[in-house]
Amino acid sequence: MASSVFWLKHKYKLSGLILILPLVFLYQSLNPSFPPAWPSQQLGEFKIAPMPLDLKAPYKHHDDYVKDFMFIFEEGNVAHIRQAYANIGPEALPLEALQKGENGVLHGSKHGQHVHAITAAKLAATDSLWVSIQNWQGEWLVSQWPVHEAVLVQ
Question: What is the pLDDT of residues 121-139, one digit of tens each?
């Protein structure tokens, strides 16, 4: 009896709280906070700045450990890219390893390219972020960024 009285007295407050919670999630999704972009580098006709989407440890995605990045193309036309890949490690992965699955493939629009960069379960201070781009003439462009200490803290 006492529990039904509590419910009758507070059901409108609980219903109001349930209606407010989606607004909190909407606000958070409309105002994301990302770490700052890393310094941009010239790679052929492209000037690219990578930006990690968070400072969390790599996570498992389709049987690979990955870290999410957004690549901002400051110069160059992304329509001139035939295929592009990213990975984190001591060296750029060979093309055969990159083409095994969908992880590591840059995808998106002229405003930014998203990638699940293939990596090991733990990042090391000697690791670098590697980007490999092939243009429509078959030329491969490869560049690297040292992994920042903020990303290493896990």
Answer: 998 889 999 999 999 999 9
